[in-house]
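dude i think i finally got it to work??
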Amino acid sequence: MRFRKPILRFILFLIIPLLMSSCISINRQIKLNRDGTGKEIMKITFMKEFYDVMASMSSLMDSSRREGFLDSLYSDEVFENKTAENYDTVAGLRLIDLSSATNPDSSKTFTIDYEFDNVSKIGSSLSHINENDDKYVTDVSLKEDGNKVYFLYEYRLKEDGVALSEDAAADSLARDMKESMSKMFEGGNFSFEVELPYNVISSNSNSRNGNILKWEFPMTEIMLSEKIRLEAEMEK
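look at this
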């Protein structure tokens, strides 16, 4: 079944605000090589509540569009095709496999297996799923300084974005809205695991197993933060 573009865009427009809620959890497992290449297995789980919310939103649509919207919503093919299409447009990313599975609790997990030719592309991999989220930027780097190597993953608000700080009175309404949403959708998690190519000296990770570091955040923290910074220092 071929879905019309307006319906697909509407679905994506609604998915983006909900991506930073507990309706969705993200698990990223990355293996990084010394030359900056590597691979990742990313798992995105849409909870049952996500589909309930989206189905409820369909009541806002006219009857002629509602049926097509619901068909698209419950079709894994829509998400998979759009994701594959976006990955194909990014130089340096090679999609290996894309699959979906329905879990016992009625949630759905989409697994994206891909390779990258430069560590900086790790930031592109998620943004090209979440293509309408243009207020934030993700920078990823692996830099050498003598016998030290530094890994950095930084997700931050763009300089021309609207700062969501307590000191910005003009932005208080936006913050209140985001905080209300975060309370409504508590429970989702963002897990970031990376296997680094050198001996780790220090990091700000939550846990460590040899050179495998793991950071975990509640989606509410990512939703309200202006910056998320993951870093590690290694020795050759």
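The radius of gyration is 19 Å.
im so relieved honestly
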